[in-house]
Amino acid sequence: MSTVRVRFAPSPTGPLHVGGLRTALYNYLLARKTGGFFVLRIEDTDQKRYVAGAEEYIMEALEWCGISPDESPQKGGNYGPYRQSERRDIYAEYLKKLLANGTAYHAFDTEAELNDRRAAEKEKGNHNFRYDASTRMSMRNSLSLKKSEVEQLLVDGTPHVIRFRIDPGNTVNFKDSVRESVSFQTEELGDQVLMKADGLPTYHLANIVDDHLMEITHVIRGEEWLPSTALHVLLYRAFGWEDSMPAFAHLPLLLNPNGKGKLSKRDGAKFGFPVFPLRWEDAAKQEVSAGFREEGFLPGALVNFLAFLGWNPGTEQEIFSLEELIEAFDIERINKSGARFDIEKGRWFNQQYLMAHMDEELAPLVQNEFNKEGYDIGTDTAAAIAGLLKERIHVLPEFFSSGSYFVKAVTDYDEKTIRKKWKTANRDKFDQLADVLAGQDDWSAAPIKAAVVAFMEANELGFGAVLPIIRVAISGSVQGPDAFEMLEVVGREESVARLRNGYDAFEKIKAQ
Ligand code: GLU
Questions:
Q1: Of all atoms in ligand 1, which is nearest to the CA of residue 203?
Q2: What single DSSP character describes residue 425?
Q3: Given Cys at both, which of 165, 229, 291, 410 links 476, Cβ 3.0 to 4.6 Å?
Q4: Which of 207, 231, 232, 262 to mutate to test the pocket of ligand 1 (most atoms within 8 A of CB)?
């Protein structure tokens, strides 16, 4: 078999949606698994929808996820240019072949004429006027007009489009590895425009010419392109390229969290989660879209999560590194049915990834989170916080939101616990505990614990009476990591001060 060459072919019309990112990922996985090539092609022929910055965004997102292309506008390669806007001459060249063999024709109908015709048809009760075999002879094109007239129109530089001639009565069959055999009747298709009046090709023409010239072996893309594939097969036929046509795999839709309907940008805002890998600021619309990166997801976790939206390895294993995904990926195991985008599952993946990292590896990320909040912490402290919190949180900003007490005294105490656990009669004893800890030389968890236990025994107090008091004084809450580990990270002077301040506050709460 020839070398696998796959492409991710986004249009730079805005930020890359997670659905597009999943498409890129599956392409990448197949390329890596087979020792093939992963191509990024920018499909920017629709100038009206072009958005500045979108191409850079796509590159950055792929890079962040660790799935960079082998060939791209930036990287180059032997099959360039990789931006369709730079390939106009190529399309014009290939279009000549279709004009010559009669599968394409010039159409001179103006926008106004088309609208008039549509309106006239509507009046007759036909709401779906289509430019096709049944109507083309009543329109103004090189099939309906006299040859001399056509030549004159072209000589005069009359604006026109070029349409694909599709004749009825044929069946188009193609194989899709996700759906097995797919079949369309040619009468279901209209005479699609291949080249627009601005001289730029439409998606269909450019896509087929490029997939052929770039020697693409597998087209892996979203399900929304399935209906266009019949047209694409006819284009391959018209060019005489049917024998080297790529294999198709149309990926199932990503569904919103309710499992009803396609996951949209609006769902992200509605349910409060990102649907884009990176944050995107739309200056024109004054709109900001949240990104997985900025929300504190690790790229590996996002990749792992997306890989499972539409594919599974057929085993119980869920946590896969990129290398393991490459190893396990199988295009035949892509599901047909839509995949529900369950952000809780995404958060779970992220937690698993955090837990799998060494505390030292997470330390810079923890430092960064504290930094954003205006706190500089050392690497050792950051590593200690990582170790204490990584199993309790899901996304990076929670290192600070759940662990701010490591750097600042609490003022908000769990009053319910205090009302139940704080006994004014024990104040003296707790003062003694603060004294004991103030004199504790070796300030690490085990000796701190030994000192507290000795104090409890001497005063006939149990864990249940003492630990909640310590916890609430240090962190405000009874939840959290091991109390002695917490004391160690907070430090001796600060811990003792918090205990003493806590007791005063507890007295007040009790007195209310
Ligand atoms: N430019 C198309 C898109 O934006 C590419 C579809 C395809 O992969 O053929 O999705």
A1: 1
A2: G
A3: 410
A4: 207
pLDDT by residue (tens digit) across 70-103? 999 999 999 999 999 999 999 999 999 999 999 9
In the block, which residue shows the tokens 């004084």? Answer: 473
**Catalytic: 265?**
yes
Q: Which atom of ligand 1 is nearest to 11's Cα?
A: 4
Q: Which two tokens stand for residue 253?
A: 């839709």
Question: β-strands 5-8, 37-40: how paired?
Answer: parallel
Q: How many CA atoms lie within 13 A of 397 on its CB side?
A: 8
Cα 457 to Cα 34, 102, 339, 409, 447, distances in angstroms: 66, 98, 57, 29, 15
Of 26, 203, 251, the one to substitute when testing ligand 1's pocket (max ligand atoms within 8 A of C-beta) is 203
Between CA 328 and CA 307 the distance in angstroms is: 11
Query: What number does the ligand 1 atom closest to the CA of 9 have?
Result: 5
CB-CB contact of 87 with 210 (8 Å): yes
Q: Six-digit token pair at 474?
A: 């240090």
Q: What residues line ligand 1, using a CB cutoff of 6 Å?
A: 9-11, 43, 203, 207, 221, 225
Of the candidates 33, 262, 265, 423, the residue annotated as catalytic is: 265
Measured CA to CA, the distance from residue 406 to residue 204 in angstroms comes to 58
Contact between 481 and 389 under an 8 Å Cβ cutoff? The reply is yes
* CA max distance for the chain: 112
CA distance 218 to 247: 5
CA of 308 to the centre of ligand 1 (A): 21
Q: How far is the CA of 22 from the centre of ligand 1 (A)?
A: 13
Give the integer Cα–Cα distance in Å for 248 and 6.
11
Pairing of strands 339-340, 104-107: unpaired
Global pTM?
0.92
Q: Please give the backbone phi and psi of residue 93, each rounded to the nearest 5 degrees, phi first.
A: -60, -50
Q: How many whole angstroms separate alpha carbon 75 and alpha carbon 68?
A: 10
- Quote the tokens at residue 227: 């209906």
Kindly state the tokens that stand for 37: 């090539």
Ligand 1 mean position, distance from CA 387 (Å): 43
Pocket test residue of 43, 84, 210 for ligand 1, highest count of atoms within 8 A of CB: 43
pLDDT tens digits for range 317-357? 999 999 999 999 999 999 999 999 999 999 999 999 999 99
pLDDT for 1: 60
